[in-house]
Amino acid sequence: MPQFKLRQRLLAIGDDFDISDANGVAVYKVDGRMFRLRQTWVIETLDGREAITVRRKLIAVRKTAQLLRDGEVIATIRKALIAPLRDTFMIDLEAGGELEAKGNVLDQEYAISRDGTAVAQVSKRWFTIRDTYGVDIADGEDVELMLAIAVAIDDLAHEPDDDEG
To answer: What is the pTM of this model?
Structure first.
């Protein structure tokens, strides 16, 4: 099971993250681009290849983010309208199917599931450093997609609800 650590860079302009593997080796960087009509993050390999772009409109009826690969939308993430007791985000995959992220999203303790089976687990339980959390991804899953989902949900969960002002 691939494991990754996401750590927000504290002295960066925008929301930038470093992503390292279970051995602490840097494998991706996340560039949070500000000053646009949309909030955008680009997940890049260390050689500069854009793996996935996370894009969120700053004004929307419901918290929504789109994930793009090579300029094409591959997934759309929306906060569930009704989710008693737990945060829930629905992830519609353009290739077909749906994922669900459910748990304590604000505290980064949640699972991403397909048909009730966990395909990734997000947790900061093992980290004492602020703004750091882990992502465990089931074998055979699209690693870049799962990391992009975690980045998008982190943003969506920490922004005030659009109808709250």
So the answer is: 0.85
